[in-house]
């Protein structure tokens, strides 16, 4: 299993690593005409199976869509894609929570016992869930940063608000109230 290491930038996932790190295998270009179909396929592959994000066939498509997310014009496609990201994140958190609930609390078992009580299969399962969780968190973080950039660039293009007019001098609250 390749370990997902959170990169400093998304481009860090494009470089194949020699140390068995997860990276994008196929740089996929998703055209505007294909986008709805690709989103539907991702929904089908990931809904209820959040660990499937660790399959390159799914991760590479999510990466491709996020790479061109600012250029997506259809609100419905954006919403569907974000729903996939959010649902996957919720599902993987719930899955990890269920796995952790099956294990005895750390305070009930000494550290030497807890290491021996975890089978090799359970360790492998924990690693798979941890990997998928890191992927989902990173992808959602990337989406949020894209939207923050969009919001800040659109707000900086708006005209500055007019300065507030100073209150009339010499009029107190009583005088202002009398004039009303």
Output the keywords.
mainly alpha, 180 residues, globular
Molecular structure report:
With 180 residues, this protein is mostly helical. It is 57% helix and 0% strand. It has 6 helices and no strands. It has helices at residues 35-46, 56-67, 75-102, 111-117, 120-156, 173-179.
Number of strands: 0
**What is the average of the pLDDT values?**
83
SSE string, helices as H and strands as E:
HHHHHH
Uncertain regions spanning at least 5 consecutive residues = none
Give the helix proportion (percent range). 55-70%
Number of helices: 6
As a whole number of angstroms, the C-alpha radius of gyration is 25 Å
Largest sheet: none
Shape: globular
Q: What is the oligomeric state here?
A: single chain
User: Which band does the percent of strand residues land in?
Assistant: under 5%
Structural class: mainly alpha
End-to-end separation? 76 Å
